[in-house]
Amino acid sequence: xxxxxxxxxxxxxxxxxxxxxxxxxxxxxxxxxxxxxxxxxxxxxxxxxxxxxxxxxxxxxxxxxxxxxxxxxxxxxxxxxxxxxxxxxxxxxxxxxxxxxxxxxxxxxxxxxxxxxxxxxxxxxxxxxxxxxxxxxxxxxxxxxxxxxxxxxxxxxxxxxxxxxxxxxxxxxxxxxxxxxxxxxxxxxxxxxxxxxxxxxxxxxxxxxxxxxxxxxxxxxxxxxxxxxxxxxxxxxxxxxxxxxxxxxxxxxxxxxxxxxxxxxxxxxxxxxxxxxxxxxxxxxxxxxxxxxxxxxxxxxxxxxxxxxxxxxxxxxxxxxxxxxxxxxxxxxxxxxxxxxxxxxxxxxxxxxxxxxxxxxxxxxxxxxxxxxxxxxxxxxxxxxxxxxxxxxxxxxxxxxxxxxxxxxxxxxxxxxxxxxxxxxxxxxxxxxxxxxxxxxxxxxxxxxxxxxxxxxxxxxxxxxxxxx
Length: 469
Prior knowledge:
The chain folds into 2 domains: 11-277, 2-methylcitrate dehydratase PrpD (Orthogonal Bundle); 287-403, CATH 3.30.1330.120. The chain is 51% helix and 6% strand. It has helices at 11-14, 17-27, 35-55, 59-72, 88-101, 114-128, 132-152, 156-161, 166-182, 187-199, 214-234, 251-256, 290-303, 319-325, 333-337, 340-350, 366-372, 418-446, 455-458; strands spanning 77-78, 85-86, 310-317, 375-379, 390-395, 400-403. The protein has a 4-stranded mixed beta sheet. The chain has a two-stranded antiparallel ribbon with strand order 1-2. The radius of gyration is 22 Å and the shape is globular. The two termini are 38 Å apart. Mean pLDDT is 95; it is low at 1-11.
């Protein structure tokens, strides 16, 4: 990739938020990364690939791949979990949707950074013949920039209150930065790429009422936008250099209004790596359900409660819990993944909330649906947005058992072990690859920093010849 740039980066541009981000992205090297940051990058890669393989088996992804083929035909970038290929931008879209499809992807980045950054960066790295060290560096860059775009907006709340889906509107910045890093763009052209990502940011919460599949596509759109943004910049198609702070059309004023905190977007840039705060999901449901699932599983284990001894369950949470997670009548996979009543019912009845509980077949079980109708989500003034709810389990003997899990499993403060993450990966990946190939992919990711070309990983993401989907 030709990186020569006429004129260089002008000082006024370098002082903007995107200018500082671009300088960071263009100059970071693998050797600059602390050991824990390198390890975190490897783990988010492993988790995203596993989630993408599991997601590739859904009906939603079959339809998305069909749309991609109809729109663009064949290409050079693998659609994970299949033998098929598509042009890089649309492959990033499909693979991003696959990572997000099962609601198992990582959290606390731009909400779900892995479903945006990994497909864009991985596809570009394979095309560019990048090494494992280059891929890991790009992943760190992408996670950092995507999260900083969110923090500069004042966090998730201001965006969500306006109806914006943070994964989609902030993720494109990270994808653009990661791809620019892999294309070895200088700071000026990386800044243009960020400008394009902000110019194309979108995605709203309108999917909630009818459980629409668009939620799956949002990370894919952001990944696609990041790829196209970086390639436009690589070809010297100039982009805005004040994309975040411009009074007229800047990302922060337009998307977050007076709630924006632009200084947070660059605080600690280059030393405080945001990938450190990322968590990993132990359950196949919206993260907002996890504290309640933990509470039910703890009570089930400690008090030996059975579904038939439960008269009702009351979840006392914030207004967001009621608005976003209170649906009892689930019709689609997304409905179920965003339903506290359904998630509590499956946890109480089966002792788990993994992939097998969130399938079209599982959604039709009358005993689970009947139990979900005995779960109510109500507003409690004690619980503010972002806090975990109280769970009250009312039993036939008159007892009421209450539990509140303040930090659910998977959070960086209550983390899954690497062994647990590897087990999650094997469970996800083996759905498509079978046990033997999933194990080979797992070990290849474990030594990714030693790979001269990450194409070795890509070759393991297609199912073995003759294996039925």
